[in-house]
Amino acid sequence: MTSIVARSGVEFRDIARLLAPTTSLKKFGQLFGLEQAKAHFPFAYLTSVARLADDRLPTDLDLWRSELTGPDLTEQDLKEIVGEAQRLYDQLECKSVGDYLAGYLNLDVEILHEGALRWIATLENVLGINFIEAGKFTISSLSYTAGLKSAESRLQIGSFFPNNSQLYSVLRLGMRG
Question: In the chain, what are the domain boundaries?
Answer without folding.
Answer: 34-127, 129-177
